Amino acid sequence: MIETLVVLTVVVLGVTAGAMLAEAVILVPFWQSIEAPAFLAWYKLNAVRLLRFFGPLGVGALLVPGLATTAVWFHEADGLVLLGAATALSLFVLISFPLYFCNVNASFEQGTIDPDDVPEELRRWGRWHWVRTIAATLAFCASVLAVRDVP
């Protein structure tokens, strides 16, 4: 059972890190390449889709490694440090949403941000997104390394 949880952790964290990387290298540059009114219209149209896609990934990327970490700890198996690191990094990724992204995304979706402020906010958004993308990628790497330690 532990091995299955760890492999599932690798899969979930790999998909999450990959999706976040795609957002960073495809969506963010696209958003930055269009005029603010066009971006705000695009975001309003697609905000629900983005949340429906990334929301479950973020939650799953915390729950699955958390379960694997708990199982390893409970059974006193190897891999606890790496899985704990993956879980902690995933927690950081998830917590970053309500701390920064939630309000900014709402301002994009509702169009309450001044269009003149959009380019700078997208630069800030992109920088913060890279921080959490790196954290998600490190979580994935830790989970891959944990596979070798789990019986």
Tell me what you see in this structure.
- The protein contains 4 helices and no strands.
- It has helices at about 1-35, 35-75, 80-110, 120-145.
- Helix 1 (about 1-35) runs antiparallel to helix 2 (about 35-75), helix 1 packs antiparallel against helix 4 and helix 2 (about 35-75) runs antiparallel to helix 3.
- The protein has one domain.
- The chain is mainly alpha-helical and about 150 residues long.
What is the mean pLDDT?
A: 96
Distance between the termini: 10 Å
Sketch the major β-sheet: none
Radius of gyration: 17 Å
General form: elongated
Model regions low in confidence, pLDDT < 50 over at least 5 residues:
none
Concise structural overview:
The chain is mainly α and 151 residues long.
Summary keywords:
151 residues; mainly alpha; 4 helices; 0% strand; elongated
Secondary structure layout:
Blueprint lengths: L1 H32 L2 H39 L5 H31 L7 H30 L4
